[in-house]
Amino acid sequence: MELDISDRSLPVYKALASPVRLNIIQKLSQRKMSVRELASELGLSSTIVLMHLGKLADAGLIEFERDGHNKISRLKVDNINVRFPQIIYPAFDSYTVQLPVGHFTNYQVEPSCGMAGQDDFIGKVDTPGYFMDPDRIKAGMIWWTAGFVEYQFPNYLTKNDKLEMLDLSMELGSEFPFSNNVWPSDITFSINDKEIGTWTSPGDFSDIRGKYTPAWVPDNVNQYGIMKTVRINHDGSFLDAQPFSDVTLADLDPYQPTFKVRFAIKEDAKNQGGCTIFGKGFGNYDQDIELKLYHS
Prior knowledge:
Number of helices: 4
CATH class of the largest domain: Mainly Beta
Number of domains: 2
CATH architecture of the largest domain: Sandwich
Mean pLDDT: 93
Low-confidence stretches: none
Structural class: mainly beta
Distance between the termini: 38 Å
Radius of gyration: 21 Å
CATH topology of the largest domain: Jelly Rolls
Order of helices and strands: EHHEHHEEEEEEEEEEEEEEEEE
């Protein structure tokens, strides 16, 4: 589950603000349990347990199923990521480009793979040849198991602009047929053929529906990813404000006509769990792949 610092995430924070509900989550992480079983283990009445379960269900953390006359509770969420607002450097001017996820210029992918638009799949699923279909530019979500997808962003820097910092942000997840909330994948980022670093996506999420994912997408396939921001400056590279690698702006040759951005599942990756990129109209962030160039 992906949260941010806004009112829309408050139901989850409120649901977690209870020792009893945290205890319930711990018990449900081991197995599904009925209301009677939970009441017995917690030493509480079934009425009180049902009240706590209702708050967890309203927050999307658990769900119910029936087993005869018993109401069974099970966890829906394996992990929660909280995204804080980005630190902005207002002293710099900037150029910003958002590139739709279907506007890749090079690719080499292996099934399971495919593309989805606002109304349906684009081309045939699990057929790499369709990644060059002209309708790919309408894609709001793409996925593949092995290989890479590459984009070229226009470089608007002029000879009088000094690049001070680069931000690359996108919503990413793993790729598993249908979905798997625990499915780690090592996704490697490269810019201008320079490898920046590798982030391990924890899963391919369908525990809840993506906020912007179209209604036609089935509930049991990947719904959303995690927003990641790679920041590169003169001191190094950072992922979500944490040290990522020693690559600096000087390593990128930033005055080429374009910035070439690649997302790859490498052959020697420890966790080869694929990659899904969510763009505008999909996932939890109504955003395409964004490149921001801060300059003085």
